[in-house]
């Protein structure tokens, strides 16, 4: 393993848009050659509201809004997000995102990846 890595997130393949219209996702864990960090870039089209969320058994995550604005649903609580907000989410909390009128770009940072898949996808219903 090299002592450092440099990866441009926008140079990575979008592996999400073919499955979810209006959402792009790029994952850099493998390219960073990191044992302990996962970093990904998520781009939400204007007005896109996720119909699925996820939670983890062990992995804590943090999300940084680097462009745009929107909302995050944490279990049943909806919070407003603006550029440069950082959201830390404990493993069992279900999280889902919705973009504002200008869209939203998020950098997600996760800790060490458990040996067995740790994430669980769930349908979410946003309160009106």
SSE layout and pairing:
Layout: E1 23-27, H1 29-32, E2 38-44, E3 52-56, E4 61-74, E5 77-81, E6 86-89, E7 95-110, E8 119-123
Antiparallel strand pairs: 1-2, 2-7, 3-8, 4-5, 4-6, 4-7
Short account of what is shown:
The chain is mainly beta. It contains one helix and eight strands; from the N terminus they run E-H-E-E-E-E-E-E-E.
Would you mind describing this structure in some detail?
The chain is mainly beta and 128 residues long. It is 3% helix and 48% strand. The protein has 1 helix and 8 strands, in the order βαβββββββ. The strands form 2 sheets. Strands 1, 2, 4, 5, 6 and 7 form a 6-stranded antiparallel sheet that branches. A hairpin with a 2-residue loop joins strand 4 and strand 5. The chain is globular. The termini are far apart.
Q: What tags apply to this protein structure?
A:
single chain, 128 residues, two-stranded antiparallel sheet
What characterizes the major β-sheet? 6 strands, antiparallel
Helix content: under 10%
Order of helices and strands: EHEEEEEEE
Derived from helix and strand composition plus strand pairing, the structural class reads mainly beta
What value does the Rg take, in angstroms? 14 Å
Q: Runs with pLDDT <50, length 5+?
A: none
The number of helical segments is 1
Cα end-to-end separation: 49 Å
Report the count of strand segments. 8
State mean pLDDT (0 to 100 scale). Answer: 95
% residues in beta strands: over 45%
Q: What overall form do the CA principal axes indicate? A: globular
């Amino acid at each position: 393993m090299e002592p450092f890595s440099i990866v441009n997130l926008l140079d990575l393949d979008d592996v999400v848009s073919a499955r979810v219209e209006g959402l792009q996702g790029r994952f850099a864990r493998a390219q960073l050659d990191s044992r302990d960090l996962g970093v990904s870039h998520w781009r939400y089209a204007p007005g896109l509201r996720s119909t699925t969320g996820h939670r983890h058994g062990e992995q804590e995550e943090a999300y940084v809004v680097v462009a745009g604005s929107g909302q995050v649903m944490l279990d049943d609580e909806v919070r407003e997000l603006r550029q440069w907000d950082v959201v830390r989410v404990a493993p069992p909390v279900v999280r889902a995102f919705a973009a504002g009128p200008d869209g939203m770009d998020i950098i997600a940072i996760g800790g060490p990846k458990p040996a067995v898949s740790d994430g669980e996808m769930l349908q979410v219903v946003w309160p009106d």
